[in-house]
Automatic annotation (TrEMBL):
Protein name: Reverse transcriptase RNase H-like domain-containing protein
Segments passing through the bilayer: none
Start and end residues of each Reverse transcriptase RNase H-like domain: 2-87
GO MF entry, a single one: endonuclease activity
Sorted UniProt keywords: Endonuclease, Hydrolase, Nuclease, Nucleotidyltransferase, RNA-directed DNA polymerase, Transferase
Source species of the chain: Solanum verrucosum
Listed InterPro entries: DNA/RNA_pol_sf, RT_RNaseH
A Pfam family annotated for this UniProt entry: RT_RNaseH
């Protein structure tokens, strides 16, 4: 799954790797409301991850997920074990199999 956010909108792409090539399966995008536009970049990036898991849930259940993002701070936070429960306390997903690249 690939995700990115700008100041106005966010987008996710779900795909699969076959013969070392990425093949898109599903696209999802959303414009940000005023509350999300005024939030920090970290919160916007976390929101796009949760939004992607929410949209692609049927495809992702029971699989290992590799998340591609350009936000380096999110990779650092996800690597810290003590930060995950606090950051994702509002989400209903289990992030054990999530790998950020």
């Amino acid at each position: 799954m690939m995700c990115d956010t700008s100041g106005l909108a966010l987008g996710d792409v779900l795909g699969q790797r076959k013969n070392n090539l990425f093949h898109p399966i599903y696209y999802a995008s959303k414009t940000l409301n005023c509350a999300h536009k005024n939030s920090t970049v970290m919160n916007q990036e976390l929101f796009i991850v949760l939004y992607g898991f929410e949209n692609f849930r049927a495809y992702l259940l029971g699989t290992k997920v590799v998340m591609h993002t350009d936000y380096v701070a999110l990779r650092y936070v996800m690597a810290k074990k003590e930060a995950k429960p606090r950051l994702f306390s509002g989400g209903c997903f289990f992030f054990k199999s999530l790998t950020l690249m």
